[in-house]
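Q: Hi! First time doing this. I have a protein sequence and I read that you can turn it into a structure. Is that right? Here it is:
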Amino acid sequence: MTLADPPLRRGRPRDAAKDEAILLAAGDLFMEHGYEAVSLDAVAQRAGVSKATIYARYADKDALFAAVLRQECERAVSPDSFFPADDQPVRETLMLLATRFLDLVTGEKAMQMNRVLVAETARAPRMAELFYETAVLNLKNRFADWLRVETVKGRLNVRDPDGAAWRYLGGVKGEAHLRASFGLPPIEPDRLAAHLEAAADEFIRAHAPG
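A: Yes, that's right. Below is the predicted 3D structure, encoded as C-alpha cells:
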C-alpha cells in the first residue's frame, strides 16, 4: 500500500531526472516563499524545464505540492516499512516505524515546512489541507492498515486501529517534536531510545492477543 499516486498523464515516457529536478525545485521554492507565492513558471525556471513539462506530470500546483510531500514521506517512511517480513517481530517493526516517523516530523525539512505552514495557513489554507491529507492522514492510514493485518494474523488485538495509530504516533513524537518546534537541542540519544522502546512495549501490552 502506498500513498495515493497522482493520475497518470499520457505521453512520452517520463524522464526521471526531470521528475527529480521538478520536485527538488518545487520543494525548495515552497519552503523559501510559501505555497501561495510560488508559481509553476518559477518552478519551471528553477528546475530548468518548460512549464509544459510540469503540466505533463501534474494537473496543477496542488498536485505538485502533494507530490513534494509524498516524496518526503516516502523517503522517511517507505511503504515497505508497513509490510515487513512475516517473521519480523511486532516490537521491532513498531520501533522502526517510530524512528522513521520521528525522522520525518523532526527533520530539518519538516521543521521548515512547519514554519511555512504556520505562516501560510491564514492566506493559503489549501496548503495546510494538502499537508494533512498527504503527509499526515495517509501515514496514519497506512499504519492503521498494518495494525489490521497484524490483528488478523493474531499477533496483536487492536479493536480501533485508527485511534490506536493516532495515539501511538502522537505519543512517539511527544517531547522530541516539541523541542524541534521550539528550536531547542534534541533529546539525548539514550533517553530518546528509551522513550521509543517504552512506547512500543506499552503499545504491545495494551493490544496483546487474547
